[in-house]
Structures are given as C-alpha cells and as structure tokens.
Write a structure and sequence with these properties.
CATH architecture of the largest domain: 3-Layer(aba) Sandwich
Order of helices and strands: EHEEHEHHEHEEHEEEHEEHEHH
Distance between the termini: 36 Å
Number of strands: 13
Largest sheet: 7 strands, parallel
Bound molecules: nicotinamide-adenine-dinucleotide
CATH superfamily of the largest domain: NAD(P)-binding Rossmann-like Domain
Shape: globular
Helix content: 25-40%
Number of domains: 2
Number of helices: 10
CATH topology of the largest domain: Rossmann fold
Radius of gyration: 19 Å
Strand content: 15-25%
Length: 312
C-alpha cells in the first residue's frame, strides 16, 4: 500500500513511519516546526511542507497515496492558549486541506489524530466516544472542530475516514523538552539522576498508552475490511487508549524500577486546568477493527527508559 503520513517527523509519526517502511511505500509531509530531521526515515519519500500551503494538493497527488494517516498538528496546549488563531488554522483548516487533497488524489481511507482533550473534564469514567465533550482549552476545541471538518470534507466522497482520540501517548522519540509528555519529562529527569517534579498530590490519573500500540491501531485500521466511518454511534470517532487509570505516583514507581533512580521527588502546586482523572474506553476500536492495546505498562516504560538512557 502507498501510505502518506503527515507529521511523520514528529513523535508518533516517526514511530509509525519506521514500522511501515519495508512493508509499504511510505510518504511523509512535515514542515519540521516541531518534528526533527533526525526522525526522517531515509527510505521514505519526504517533503518539507506546511499543510496549509496552497501546493499541498499537488504534493499529495505527486505521491498518490492509497491511504493517509494525518498526524500533523499544532499539538501544544500552551501554544494553543498563546496563539489560538494559529492553533485553529493548523488543526481545523489543515485537517480540511489534508482531507480534500487526499480525496482528490484518490486515497481510499484517511485516519486523523484527535485527542482525549476533546472531552475536557470527564463527566464519567471511562469516557466513551459518546460522552459529553467540553474542551477546556483551544487545543481541545480545535481537535473537536477538526473531527467535524474531516466529516464535512469526506462524507459522500467514497473515501473512508476516522478520527482517533489518543489518550496520553508515550514512548521513544517523545520530546522531553518544553511541554512534552509527563512520561518523557520524568524519564529524562530520572535517567539523568534528577528528581521529577510532580504537580499536585500525585493521585491524579491518566490513561497512558504506549506509542507501539498507537502505531498498531493506525496500521490495523488501514487494513480493516469494514468502513470505519460507519461503525456504530458517534460514527467516525474512536478512542485509542487502554481504558486504565494510572496515577502519577504509580508512574513514578514504575520509572524508579526502570531507571534505577532512588532519589527524592519534588512537588509543586497543581496546574490550573489539569483534569483530576482520565481514562478512555477503547471497546469501540476492538469491535470496529479488532484493535486493543497489548503492551504491559511496565515493559513499555522499560523500553522507553532504555531509549532515553544516554540521550538526555
Ligand atoms: N502525544 C500525545 O500524547 C497525543 C495525544 C493526543 C493526540 N495527539 C495528536 O497526535 C498527533 C501527533 O502528535 P505527536 O505527539 O507526535 O506530536 P509532534 O509535535 O511530535 O508531531 C507533530 C508533527 O507535525 C508537524 N507539523 C506541525 N504543524 C505542521 C504543519 N502546519 N504542516 C506540516 N507539519 C506540521 C510537526 O513538525 C511535527 O513533526 C497530533 O495530531 C497530536 O495532536 C498526540
């Protein structure tokens, strides 16, 4: 299959591209605004391009994908608050542009990255695709609007599509500088013998999912026989998650075992806007295209810590 990955020089995208190359022809479009040139797979077809650039349609047509995984996004909550207009442009209009270009180029299926951020403070746990959506920041709002933009562009074109609401993804190549993910930030600190800083009381929970499981979800969705867009209630949205809550304190305990860090933990005030608990029910992805997260948390954290060792 010819698979185009937008955002393929980023954290999730580069893990996906590395898994696809060899079995598929892989194209990557990334403007390298956050992604790293080191992440570009030498055997992939690569173009440095902003998805908002007017030449996007021609570039996608040049590669001629059978399927597209759309991961390029303004993915920082902090940046979305600083510059909500840019966040909306990249995430909503960018998704619209990628969908239009993919359909025009004859792609048969498009999977687009959405986020647990569409739900905001959970009204119930675990969150189902149909749970109330109340985004707590511009990033969550733009991801929710992107889901509608995707459906607007592709309904009636014959192309199949889905939005995957990833929970908290972690693993090799995640950026540990700046905002990053808590697993990357803690792994980098503890691998270097430095204390992690826990915001709040450490009892807050997240649904941590290993990037290898997210890669498998994308691949299994592309190979699925049925249409993803028509699967049950809330149509083309799927949680890609474990359904399990892990507290930040439990995460620190796993990381102590994986990194050998035996020092203290720093504490700071809880951050405004952080949800207290989170878990997303992945049952629909299992019935829809047979995917479930398979990586035990301790071995996934171990693999992540091994990757970080020596890099920070
Ligand atoms: N990492 C997570 O925990 C998580 C959770 C939920 C959803 N997501 C979503 O998954 C996707 C991938 O996230 P990630 O963690 O790999 O982020 P990332 O920042 O590492 O990757 C995003 C990539 O998109 C590229 N990009 C940004 N704007 C672009 C533009 N205008 N044109 C072309 N390329 C552009 C960046 O250079 C980067 O390589 C994003 O859509 C993100 O919102 C991630």
């Amino acid at each position: 299959m010819r698979i185009l990955v937008t955002g393929g020089a980023g954290f999730i995208g580069s893990n996906l591209v590395h898994a696809l190359v060899g079995a598929h022809e892989v194209g990557v479009i990334d403007d390298l605004s956050c992604g790293s040139p080191e992440n570009i797979h030498p055997a992939s077809w690569f173009r440095t391009l902003d998805i908002l650039d007017p030449s996007l349609g021609a570039v996608v047509a040049e590669f001629g994908p059978d399927a597209v995984i759309h991961l390029a996004a303004q993915a920082s909550v902090t940046e979305s608050i600083k510059d909500p207009a840019r966040d909306r442009a990249v995430n909503v209009e960018g998704t619209r542009a990628v969908a239009r270009a993919a359909a025009a180029a004859g792609a048969r299926r498009l999977v687009s990255a959405s986020s647990a951020a569409v739900y905001g403070e959970p009204a119930e746990l675990p969150l189902a695709e149909t749970s109330p959506k109340s985004p707590a920041n511009p990033y969550g709002a733009s991801k929710l609007a992107a889901e509608s933009a995707l459906a607007d562009e592709l309904a009636g074109t014959g192309a199949d599509f889905a939005s995957f609401r990833f929970s908290n993804v972690f693993g090799p190549r995640q950026d540990w500088r700046g905002e990053g993910g808590v697993v990357a930030i803690f792994t980098a600190a503890m691998s270097a013998g430095e204390p992690p800083t826990v915001f709040g009381d450490g009892k807050q929970t997240r649904d941590f999912i290993y990037v290898g499981d997210v890669v498998a979800a994308c691949l299994e969705a592309l190979l699925a026989e049925g249409r993803l867009a028509d699967e049950g209630v809330d149509g083309p949205a799927y949680n890609v998650s474990t359904g399990r809550e892990t507290s930040v304190d439990q995460l620190v305990a796993h990381l102590r075992a994986a990194t050998g860090y035996g020092g203290p933990v720093d504490h700071a005030a809880a951050r405004e806007g952080d949800v207290a608990r989170s878990a997303l029910d992945p049952a629909k992805a299992r019935t829809g295209f047979g995917w479930a997260a398979r990586s035990p948390l301790d071995s996934a954290i171990g693999a992540t810590a091994r990757w970080f060792a020596g890099r920070t």
